[in-house]
Amino acid sequence: MTFPRIVALDMDGTLIAPDGNIPEEFWPVLDEAKTKNMVIAPASGRQLATLQDMFSGRGMETFIAENGSVVWHKGEIVSTKPINDDAVAALLRTAAESETPIHPVVCNPEFAFVGANMPEHAFEEISRYYHSRRPVVSLIDAAQESTEPTIKVSFFVETDAERDGLPVAQAAPDQNIAVSSAHWVDIMSPDTNKGNALTALAATLGIDIADTAAIGDYLNDYEMLETAGTAVAMANGHDKLKAIADIVAPSNAEYGAIKQIQEWLNQ
C-alpha cells in the first residue's frame, strides 16, 4: 500500500499487549512516525481523559475516543456526536430493571457519570477505562440535569455482553449499538462509529481517506476498517474483521500492530 498519512490504531486487543500495557517497543515507532508526518491516532472505546493519561508526556496530538463519539486534535474537540436524551433515559431505566448485572456509564465529552453505589469489582473495571468520573446516586437525574451532552452510554456487563447486554441495549433500537469486548456494550447516536470519526479526522487534516489505515481487532472496529484506505485486522481479532481486512497482522501478543506500522515507516 501507499504510505498512510493517518493510522487509526485501536487499543485493547490491538496495541495493548495481553498484560494490559502499551509495549515499550511502541514509543520509538511513534517518534519515528512523527518525523515522517504519519499521524498515529489511538482509536478506542476509552474516554478521552483516559487516553490522554495513557499517552501523557508522549506528545500525542490526536485521539478518537468513546468509539468515535469524540475526535480530539491539538487540544480541541473537532467532532462530537450527542445521543438522544430519550434514548439515554430508556437505556438507564431498562438496565436498572434488568436481572443481568449491568453497570451503566453515562459519557460526556470530558467526563463520565457513574453509579455511586456499585460493587467494588465493577468500580475497578470501570476505572480502567474512565479516569474522569463523577459518582452520582441517580444516573437518570444526572444525565437530565447535566449541561454537557451525553455522547455515549456504556454497559459493563458482568456476564456476557453479546448475550446479555445486547437485549438491554435494544431499549434504544434507533441508536448505534456496538459490542466492544466480552463485557462491554456501547450505545451511541446512529451515525457514530470509529469509521465516521476517521472520516471527520481526515477531513479536518485535509487528508484523502484513501491515504489512511486502520488497525483493529473487535466488532467496534468494523466500520473503521471498512472506511480506511487500508484495513488491518489482528490475528487475535474477530473473524468478521479478518473477512474485510487487506492485511492480517500478527497478534497483540506478538506486537503485530507495531510491526505493521514499522513496515509502513520503512517504505
From TrEMBL:
Origin superkingdom: Bacteria
GO molecular function, one term: phosphatase activity
Classification via Gene3D superfamilies: 3.30.1240.10, HAD superfamily/HAD-like (3.40.50.1000)
UniProt-listed InterPro entries: Cof, HAD-like_sf, HAD-SF_hydro_IIB, HAD_sf
GO cellular component annotations of the record: cytosol
A Pfam family annotated for this UniProt entry: Hydrolase_3
PANTHER family listed in its UniProt record: HAD SUPERFAMILY HYDROLASE-LIKE, TYPE 3, PHOSPHOSERINE PHOSPHATASE
Full protein name: HAD family hydrolase
Species per Swiss-Prot/TrEMBL record: Corynebacterium appendicis CIP 107643
Organism taxonomic ancestry: Bacteria, Bacillati, Actinomycetota, Actinomycetes, Mycobacteriales
